[in-house]
Structures are given as structure tokens and as C-alpha cells.
Amino acid sequence: MYPYVLIAHNTWRWVVLGLGVLLLISVVRGLREQTPWGTGVALKARLFAIAVDLQLLGGAALYLGLNPLTTAERSNAGSLQAGSAQHFVGLTHALVMVAAIVLVHVAAVLVRKAGNDVTRHRLALGLYGPALLIIIAGTPWWRPLLRL
How do the pLDDT tens digits run along the chain, 148 residues long? Predict the structure, then answer.
């Protein structure tokens, strides 16, 4: 089961990154061209949040029992070196990604409640942008870029 969930989690990251980039392009275009916050941008924001949530489910399945690296991390937490791949996957990656997911959901709520279109675009850029940067920073890029 572990290899299949890992393949899905690894492949799905490209969906998350692609949707995040598409969302930011739409937001920047909306700010630059003073366009209204329409259903297209709102749909991209919703799909990005859904993609992040699905990635969380796969990551939680790996973290909570399927991945031998994280089960070793939890059993030997004090003996692992900071900066090691095992430490990154077992602790840093999980914490950074949870922070990004929280930021995505805070962004969704604040953007939805914003009073006008300019404020929505600015909030989206100011919150979804850093969330995407956190996701990029927290991704273990030394792992294979695509597992099949």
C-alpha cells in the first residue's frame, strides 16, 4: 500500500503546484487589469484549496503509518540529526505543509468575506502567494520528481 500512496502523493504535488500557479496568474491579471473577482478566479481558488486538502490526506496517511521514514522518526525522535532527509520528511515537511494548508484556508475565508474586488485580489495575492511559496519550500525536491 505504501508505494501506491507515495506515487499518488508525489504525482498530486504537480496538480497542487499547477493550480497554485494558475490561481496566482489569474489574481495578478485581475489586479493589473482591474477585473472583477469572477467565478473563474473563485473556482481556481476553490480547486487549489481542494487539491491542497487531498494532498494533506495522502500525506497524513504516509505520516501516520505507511511511510517507514516517519515511523522511524517518531520512535527515535531524539536521535535523528537535524538536516537529515529522515528528519526533514518526518518533521519539517509535515509542519511546514500544515502551516501552508492553514494559510490556504485562512486566505479562502478572508477573500470570500472581502468587501470589493480589489481587496479580494490583494488578499488573494498576499495570502495564496506566500502559501504557494511555503509549499515549494517544504517540498522534498531531492526525491524523484515523478514516481510511476
Answer: 878 888 888 889 999 999 999 999 999 999 999 999 988 999 999 999 999 999 999 988 888 877 666 665 556 655 556 666 666 666 788 889 999 999 999 999 999 999 899 999 999 999 999 999 999 998 888 766 666 5
All three cell numbers of 11: 504525482
Residues spanned by the domain of 89: 2-75+83-138
Question: How many CA atoms, within 13 angstroms, populate the side-chain half-sphere of residue 112?
Answer: 10
Domain count, the chain: 1
| 146 falls within a domain | no
pTM score, whole prediction: 0.85
Q: Is residue 147 part of a domain?
A: no
d(CA 54, CA 56): 5
- What whole-number distance in Å separates Cα of residue 17 and Cα of residue 49? 11
Is there a contact between 52 and 101 (Cβ–Cβ < 8 Å)?
yes
